[in-house]
Every structure is written in structure tokens, then in C-alpha cells.
Amino acid sequence: MALIGVFDSGVGGLSILDEALRQLPENDYLYLADSANAPYGERSSDWIAQRSLALCRYLANEGCDAIVVACNTATAQAIQEIRAQLSIPVIGVEPGIKPAAMHTQNGIVGVLATEATLKSDKFNALLATLPSNCRFIKQAGEGLVPLIESGNANSEETLELLAKHLEPIQDAGSDTIVLGCTHYPFLRKSIRKLLGDSITLIDTSDAVVRQLKRQLELLQNLSTKKDVGSVTFISSKNEDRLLSMASDLLSCDLSLHAVTTQLLGDIG
């Protein structure tokens, strides 16, 4: 088994952790939420890069064999530098615009993501590689992450704001929507309520965990003795609150794992 770090600005990365616990339950996990500084999507590129690197260094120093940067914004702004600085596998996440382009029937794809992700060089470089006959409707989901972070993913306030953000995507006739932030899979029910079941929703949790699995298979001397590993929830704000939200948002059964919490101290 391996010790895997999963890092996000807040609870969004729980969507990745959920899939990891489903596919790779035998490993131990450190889930690090920088909730004191969420959301990242409205912060400067330099701040995001420096903070993300510092947190990933912390996870590496804790003995992680691999790290998942389970935040689209942090991946877009910092993944290259993190990989350059650390000697362990670092898996990032990015909006699933490539699978969306392959799946769409009418060539119109909505991309709901943070402003920082949509403006990033990494995202736009990826966009430039895709077929020109596919039209992407880019929409920043401003305000959605704080609502999810506050435990209001299914509130009327969130539904109203989400409807506003989805309107340009719907008006354009999109048949596919990319959930370009790891927080947004927790809005699936609300999106279905607003747009129905015919629209396709794309998120990359499964692909990210499959890449993690491939990276782990390349590592040597990893024990496979345990059936189910432990999960430690680390928060820069309130570790008990993080555990409570994880219990609400995760579909996996946390009671099967040894669960502990930890408050993140000063990491310099």
C-alpha cells in the first residue's frame, strides 16, 4: 500500500478522494484542504503557485508516495513547478474538454470552471489542440465554490446562482457540460434539476484515479497487505468541519477506514 496525498483548496477534492477510495481502498490517504484560503479561483496566479507548492511540499515531507493536486485552479497555475520541485509522482486534474469534444453530438460544449482556470495558459493551450468545429462556451462559476464550502451545495441560493451561470451554456444549445472544477460534481443533482437528464456531464475523477493507479504500479517496494487503508483529514481552518462535510459529501463508507483529523499548522 502507498501513502497518497490529495490536496485541494477546500472540499472539492473530495470528489477525487471518493473515487480513489472506491478504486484503491487499500492505500492510506492524507486529504489536505486549505479551507482558510478557499476559494483559489479568485486569487492571483503567483499566490496560487506559491501556496500550492508549499502545501505539496508539506505532503511530501509527511511521507507521501504520490500526490494528487485535486484542484483545477492549482493544477493550471502550479503543476509544472510542483513536479519540478518534488521527486514523487504528482497527478493533476484538468477540465475534461477533450472527452467532451469526442462525446458531443452537436459540437457545442459548455465549460463551467473558475475564472483562474479559464484564463490559464494550460487550459487555453489544451483548448487550442481540439477540433475547430467544436464550439466551447466558457462560463466562470463565480460564487459557487464558497456556497459548496459552506455546506450549501443543495440550497435554493446555490440553485439560483447555478441557473444564472448555466443560462449562457443552455442558450447556446450545449448538449455537453464539462464540470471544470472538482467542487462542481457535488452540483450534479442541481444541474439535472435545471437542465434535465438529456445533457451529458463530464468530470475527470475516474481518469485521474486511473492515472494515479498507473503511477503507483511503477513504484517499487509497496506493500499490498492491507485490504482497507486509513484516511486523515487535514484542514488549515477547521478539521472537524472538514470531516463533517466529508461524511456528507462522500458516497463511500468512511466507517470502513481508520479516520483521523488534524489541523494544519504554519508551513512557512
TrEMBL record:
The active site is at C71, C181. Pathway: Cell wall biogenesis; peptidoglycan biosynthesis. It catalyses: L-glutamate = D-glutamate. Provides the (R)-glutamate required for cell wall biosynthesis. PROSITE patterns: ASP_GLU_RACEMASE_1, ASP_GLU_RACEMASE_2. One of its GO terms (molecular function) is glutamate racemase activity. The keyword Isomerase applies. This is Glutamate racemase. InterPro entries: Asp/Glu/hydantoin_racemase, Asp/Glu_race, Asp/Glu_racemase_AS_1, Asp/Glu_racemase_AS_2, Glu_race. It comes from Polynucleobacter asymbioticus (strain DSM 18221 / CIP 109841 / QLW-P1DMWA-1). The keyword Cell wall biogenesis/degradation applies. Its EC number is 5.1.1.3. Pfam families: Asp_Glu_race (PF01177). Keywords: Cell shape, Cell wall biogenesis/degradation, Isomerase, Peptidoglycan synthesis. GO terms for biological process: cell wall organization; peptidoglycan biosynthetic process; regulation of cell shape. Substrate binds at D8, S9, Y40, G41, N72, T73, T182, H183. The lineage of its organism: Bacteria, Pseudomonadati, Pseudomonadota, Betaproteobacteria, Burkholderiales.
